[in-house]
Structures
1.
Amino acid sequence: MKAQLVTLVVACLFGTVLSDGSTLAWCYHLPSCNYTTWPTKIPHHCSGARQSPVNIVTADVQADPSLTTFSFTGFNDSSALLNIKNADGKSVMVSLDDSKMSVSGGGLSGLYKSKQFHLHWGNGSSSAGSEHTVNGKRYPMELHIVHMKSTHPSMTVALDDPTGLAVLGFFIEATNDSSTPEMWKNLTSFLLKISRKGDVVDIKNQITMDGLLKGVNRTRYYRYLGSLTTPSCDEAVVWTVFKDPIKVSQDLINLFSTSVYINTTAQPLITNNFRGVQALKGRVIKSQPSSATTPYEALSLTAALLYYLL
Ligand SMILES: *[C@@H]1O[C@H](CO)[C@@H](O)[C@H](O)[C@H]1NC(C)=O
Ligand SMILES: *[C@@H]1O[C@H](CO)[C@@H](O)[C@H](O)[C@H]1NC(C)=O
Ligand SMILES: *[C@@H]1O[C@H](CO)[C@@H](O)[C@H](O)[C@H]1NC(C)=O
Ligand SMILES: *[C@@H]1O[C@H](CO)[C@@H](O)[C@H](O)[C@H]1NC(C)=O
Ligand SMILES: *[C@@H]1O[C@H](CO)[C@@H](O)[C@H](O)[C@H]1NC(C)=O
Ligand SMILES: *[C@@H]1O[C@H](CO)[C@@H](O)[C@H](O)[C@H]1NC(C)=O
Ligand SMILES: *[C@@H]1O[C@H](CO)[C@@H](O)[C@H](O)[C@H]1NC(C)=O
Ligand SMILES: [Zn+2]
C-alpha cells in the first residue's frame, strides 16, 4: 500500500491519491489543511529534520569548491516540453521528456533526468509567493525543475534515497517591462486553457527551458539537502537555488493568480500555493567560493577605494 501511495504521489507531486481512491487532505487555502497543519496531519515526513523550503541567510552561507558548473542537456529543445496541466488544483506543471532533458555536474553525484517543472506564486502584485526566501525576502514566484537520479528505476526508489531527486529552483522577479520575456508570454498564453483542475494541453515544439531561464547565470547557486515542499514532504532532494532571478513582467506574473482554479468549478482561484520556510536544524547552505570577484563587486570595491582615497 505504501509503495502504491508513493508511486501515485509522485506521478503528480500535487495529487496525493491514496490507494482507496481518496485524496490526502492538504491544501494551501484553508486553515484546516494549510501548511501549518502538515507536520501534525502528515508527520511522515512533514515533521522531519531536513524539510524545505528554507530561508537562505547569505551571511551564513559556506563556500564549497565542489559546487562546479552544471551541464544541461535538452534545455534548448522545444520538443522536450510535452504538456502543461492544472496539477490537481494546486499548481501549474509542465511535463518534460526525460529521454531528452537532464542535468549533471553542479556538485551532483551523477546524471539526473528532468521529469517536470511547476510553479509557486502568491496573489498578484499584492503578495509574493516564492518558497525559498533570501535574508527574509520573498520573491513574487518560484519555478522548480524536478529531476530524478538516472540510476533509479522509479520515483518510489528515488524517494527512499536521500539524494534521489535534484530540484533546481529559480526565483521570479517582477519587471514592468510589459509582456516580456517572449517565452513567458508563450507559456502564460496556455493558462486560460487549463483553468479547471486536471485540464491538460499539449505544448510541444513551442517553448524551450533555456528561453524560460533567460538572464540567469547558472554558475551561481545555493546548495543544501532538503525535502519535497508538498506532502508527503519526502526527504530525498538535493536542492539548488539559483541566485539570479528570472525577470518576468508583472502583467504575466499576475496571470497565474487570476487564471487557474482549485476546482472543476470556476472557484476559488489558486493563490499563495507555497509552503512557509522550515527550520534548518543544523543544516548549512553552501555556495561557490567568492574568490572570483564579480565585475560588479570589483567595481564597487574600486568605487569604495576611490571614496577613501578622496
Ligand atoms: C493556516 O491555518 C492556521 C490555522 O490552522 C492559521 O492560523 C494561519 O493563518 C493559516 N496560514 C496561512 C498561510 O494560510
Ligand atoms: C542544443 O544544443 C546542443 C549543444 O550545444 C546542440 O548540439 C543541439 O543541436 C541543440 N539543439 C537544438 C534543438 O537547438
Ligand atoms: C488576492 O487579491 C485579490 C485582489 O487583489 C483579492 O480580491 C483576493 O481576496 C486575494 N485573495 C487572497 C486569497 O488573498
Ligand atoms: C517601471 O515603471 C516606472 C514607473 O512607471 C518607470 O519609471 C521605470 O523606468 C520602469 N522600470 C523599468 C525597468 O521598466
Ligand atoms: C511564441 O509565441 C509567438 C506568438 O504566438 C509565436 O509567434 C512564436 O513563434 C512563439 N515562439 C516560440 C519560440 O515558440
Ligand atoms: C556568471 O557568473 C560567473 C561567476 O560569477 C562569471 O565568472 C561569469 O562571467 C558569469 N557569466 C555571465 C554570462 O555573466
Ligand atoms: C472546491 O474545492 C475545495 C477544496 O477541494 C472544496 O473544499 C470546496 O468545497 C470546493 N468548492 C466547490 C464549489 O466545489
Ligand atoms: Zn515546488
2.
Amino acid sequence: MIPVLDLKREYQELKDEIDAAVSRVLASGGFVGGAEVEALEGELAAYLEVPHIITLGSGTDALFIALRAMGLGPGDEVITSPFTFIATIEAIQHVGATPVLVDIDPQTFNLDPQGLGAALTPRTRAILPVHLYGQAAPMQAIVEFAQAHRLSVLEDAAQAIGARYCSQGAGPAWQRVGTIGMAGAFSLYPTKNLGAYGDAGFIATRSPAIAEESRLIASHGQAARYHHVRPAGYTSRLDALQAAILRVKLPHLEAWNARRRAIAHAYSEGLKGVVQTPYEAPYALHIFHQYTIRHPQRDRLAEHLKARGIGSSVHYPLPAHLQPAYRDLAPEGSLPEAERAAREVLSLPMHPFLEEAQLEAVLEAVRSFG
Ligand SMILES: *Cc1c(COP(=O)(O)O)cnc(C)c1O
C-alpha cells in the first residue's frame, strides 16, 4: 500500500534528534511554555519574516483567538469560503459572529473575490480567506476590497506554512502567506507540512496589539500571574515537548516543501491530458499540502486506485453549507463551484518521503483508469 502520508518514515529519518529533544524536555521539568516554546516562537518569526508569533494548542484555537483579538463578536459577519476544513466556520461561530459564504474559483479552489461584493452587508466586519491545499488565496483583490470597506482580514494559513504570495503591481514580492492580512492562523497538526506529535498551532501577526491581546486571551486573560484583566479568558498553550520536536523539524521545512513541489511537478507532467491536475496561480508559490486532482467519476477513480494499492483521500466530501450542522448557512445549489468541487476532488499520496518508484506506481495506476 502506498499511503497518502507517511509519518513513521519521517520519525525514522529524525529519530536521534527527536529522541534527544524529548529527553531534554523531560529532564528539564518544564512542560507548558518556557524556554523551548520561546525559542520556537523566535525561529518561526524568523522563518515567516513576521515580528510576532503566539503559539497555541491548535490551529482551531489560532483562528478563534485571532478573531477575538481582532474584536469580532456577536452581530458581526465574517466572509469566508464554504470549501474548507470545518474549523474555519467553527471559529467564526465561537466568537458569536456569523459566517457568510462566498463561492470558490474552480481553478484554485480558493475564495473567488468576484463574489465579495454580493456578500457585503452593513454588518460585514472581516474576511477570512483560506489558503487551501497550500496555495495562496488571491490576497491583493481581497485586501483591496477589505481596505475599501474597512474590513479586517484574517488568513487561514493552516495548510500553507512556507507558501508565498506575490502581489501584482506595486506591492512587496513573494511574502509568506499568513503574514499579509492583520493576522494569520496556522495549524501544526501532525499531518500538516510542519506537524507536531499532537495538537498545536499559532498566530502570526505584524500588529503588537493583536499579539498582546491574543496572549492575554490564550492564558486566562492574565496580564501577570493571577491578575486577570480580560473576562471569559481561555487556555490554549503549546507544550514544551511539542516545541522541542517542532524545533528539530522546522529547519527541514524548506527542503520538504521543495520536495513536495518536485513531486507535484512530476505528477502533473505524468498526468497531462489524463485528469485535471492542480493549477498554480502566477501569484502563488504552492507548497502542495495536498496534491488534488479533479475527476467527474471521483469515487470510481478512488476505488480503482485502492484496488491497486494506492491511497487517496477527499478534501472535502461536503462543502460547509451541506454539512448536517450547517444547513442554515446557505441553500443547496447556491454555491455551485464548491458543491461541484466536493464531488470531483481527489488527493493523491503527497509527502516529502515519497520515493520515485512509488511516484511511478501512482502515475501508472491513475493512467490505467478507463
Ligand atoms: C487543519 C486545519 C485547521 C485546524 O487546525 P487544527 O490544528 O486541526 O485545529 C483549520 N483550517 C484548515 C483549513 C485546516 O486545514
